[in-house]
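Journal club prep — side note

Before the paper discussion, L.F. wants everyone to see what a predicted structure for a comparable chain looks like in C-alpha cell form. Sequence:
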Amino acid sequence: MKEGQTLWTKEQSILAINLYCKIPFGQMHSRNADVIELANLIGRSSGAVARKLGNFASFDPKLKQRGVRGLENASKLDSQIWNEYMHDWDEQFIESEKLLAKKKHTTIEKLNYIDLDNLSEVDGKEKERLVIVRVNQSLFRKMVLTNFNNQCCITGIKQSELLVASHILPWSKDKGNRLNPKNGLALNTLHDKAFDSGLITITEDLRIKVSSSFLKSKDILSIKHNFIDYDGKQLIEPQKFFPDVDFLKTHNERFRA
C-alpha cells in the first residue's frame, strides 16, 4: 500500500460490489456518474472505486473464459465479499442495499422508487413483506437489464417499457435465488411469456430452442418471425453474470419440445 493510502473497510467494499452488480461492465470507469457518486459517499476517489470494481471483475470465471480480465491485486476482503455474494445473493444484496440507503439517509424503498401509496391500508408484517417483494423486483430488474445492456437477449429490442427481467427458476420455486442475476434473462414481454410457458428455452451453450408446436402455425408471419426464425440462434451474451447452467437445465426439463 502506498504512503497516505488507507485500507478499504468492509462497509466500503460492500457498497462497491453493490454498484458492481448494477452498472454495465464497460461503464466501470472513473468518469461514470454512479462511480463518482459512490466515491463521494464513501470518501474515496472515483479512480479508487473504479479499480475496486475491476478487482471484483477479476473473480468472475465467465469473464476469464472470454479473455476479459479484471484488475490484479484484489484483497482477501474482496475475495471474501465476492464469495459471500455468490453463495447468498438474496440476503447479501438486500443487506448492501440497506447499507446504501443508510449512507444516503433514506429508506430502501425510497432508494428504489417504490410507490407505497397503495399500501397505506396494509399493516405490520404484511406491509413489510410486500415492500421487500417490490424492492426485490426492482433490484432484480435493474441488475438483469443492465447485465444484458438493457436489451432483450433474444431479439435485441431496447424499449424499456417492453422489457422484463425474467427468472429462469421461478420466483415462487426458488426463494434463495430471487435476486441472483445468474437466474435472470432480459426478455421482451412476448418472449418472457413464451419462456415462462416452456415454449422456448435456452440451452447450456446459450442457444435459443423453440417448441416444435410453433411449426403448426409456420405460415403465420408473426409466428415465423418471432419464434421459428430464432430457433438455434445464439443468445445475446450478458456482460458479466452468465446464466447458471444448473438453472438452465432445470428450465429445459419444463420445455415443451
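L.F.'s comment for the group: Residues 155 and 188 are 8 Å apart (CA to CA). Keep this in mind when we get to the figures.
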